[in-house]
Design goal:
96 residues, mainly alpha, two-stranded antiparallel sheet, 2 strands
């Protein structure tokens, strides 16, 4: 994951992360839980990111690998929504 510190532009205390991740609905189109599908996608993407040629290329570009579980990613997204919600409210930004 590549990152830049937002305090360089007067957002002290915030760290903006730029990364890539996959997401899926909690249920498939038929209403069945997606846990098995998510587990397989996670396992296969983790395996792909372990391939040295891909990993070496991405690290050379500044990538830092986290490799969280789907549950850890869900918790991370929830915390980011809280943090950036506070930042948006503090900025006075309005939806147009």
């Amino acid at each position: 994951m590549m990152f830049a510190r937002m305090n360089l532009i007067n957002f002290a205390g915030f760290l903006a992360l730029l990364g890539a991740a996959g997401a899926a609905p909690a249920q498939d189109a038929a209403g069945y839980p997606s846990r098995d599908i998510i587990a397989k996608l996670h396992a296969e993407s983790t395996k792909a990111l372990q391939a040295s040629d891909l990993r070496d290329r991405m690290v050379a570009e500044g990538a830092e690998f986290v490799g969280d579980t789907p549950e850890q990613f869900t918790a991370f997204i929830a915390s980011e929504l809280v943090k950036w919600g506070k930042a948006a409210r503090a900025s006075g930004a309005k939806v147009e």
